[in-house]
Amino acid sequence: MNSNTKSLLLYALMCAGFVLSACGKTNTGNSNIIPSAQANTTSAHASQGSAVRTYTMIGVLSDMQPISFMDHKSRNYIGHDIDLAKEACKRAEMECRFKPVFLSDIEKELVKDKTVDAIWSNIVITNERKKVFAFSEPYIKGKQVIMVRADSPIKTKADLGGTKVIVEKDSVGEQMVRALSGSQAPAEIITTTGTVEASQHLFAGNADAVVYDNLTLEYYAANTPGKLRVIDDPLREDDIGVAVRPDDTLLLGKINKALATMQADGTSRKIHENWYSKK
Q1: Strand order in the sheet with 63-64
Q2: Cβ-based burial of 144 (10 A; exposed 0-12, middle 13-18, buried ≥19)
Q3: Bond preceding residue 66 cis, omega within 30 of 0
Q4: What single string gives the DSSP state of each residue in 173-221?
Q5: Residues 257, 93 contacting (CB under 8 angstroms)
Q6: Are 94 and 37 in contact (CB under 8 A)?
Q7: What is the pLDDT of residues 221-244, one digit of tens each?
Q8: Which pLDDT does position 41 carry in this prediction?
Q9: 3-state helix, strand, coil in the chain (%, to 5)
Q10: Sign of the torsion formed by the C-alpha atoms of 37, 15, 119 and 275
């Protein structure tokens, strides 16, 4: 892991654990402040059914280290999925730009308002979401896991009974936690809009556990030795893909083709290792 990545994560964790009210929120309403992530070509994709655009707008969750998050120095988005998207856009000869979205708003942004043409930010493929979106072929596997403070007595998901659990609003993790019943049912479920806010609650002692994707939580725990740990008892395993509008077969085809070549030549693996390698 490079020093720039470590410093960015340290900033996020400082926001989470030590200066809870002082760190500013990312601007989520104005995509114009986000520099274009242009491919090395002038060809662009005008998404079917979207507002008139000469480029492809990709929606990303803005505080998911190491998936997609803001570099506060350059004001650019960086991360595992950002690198995958940039490479895919380059291979598909598309100009792509990034816009921050909340997970709870992805249907509104992508399908209803069409402010974005795709959501590329660790989106779990579920049967419910397939009714609303078309998905690319899965590009990675993810698990819904539990993160707790290092000194927590919680050892398995069965220990969540009677505790306070944090989940991201409208996430698969929220669905899984709300489905727990009987002795496993939490006493309280706290919903947040992202992992930074969730970690704030956990560090501050306002909750006992966070349930979220392993790719993000394992990254947090690995970079806070002795402070956080992820429990080896996942609630479930999921496929993760890129979401587009169901009628946008052109864009979906380009994304799938790019992902297939990236997996075949080892580019996807290299990007994964760059963001998830040991410290």
Answers
A1: 63-64, 68-71, 76-78
A2: buried
A3: yes
A4: HHHHHHT--GGG--SEEEEESSHHHHHHHHHHTS-SEEEEEHHHHHHHH
A5: no
A6: no
A7: 888 889 999 999 999 999 999 999
A8: 33
A9: 35, 25, 35
A10: positive
Buried b (16+ CB within 10 A) or exposed e, 18-35: eeeeeeeebeeeebeebe
For the record, the structure tokens of 264 come out as: 């075949």
CA quadruple 111, 113, 118, 122: dihedral sign: negative
Residues 136-190 have pLDDT tens digits of 999 999 999 999 999 999 999 999 999 999 998 889 999 999 999 999 999 999 9
pLDDT of 15 strictly over 70: no
Neighbours of 249 (CB within 10 A): 12
For residues 147 and 221, is the Cβ–Cβ distance under 8 A? yes
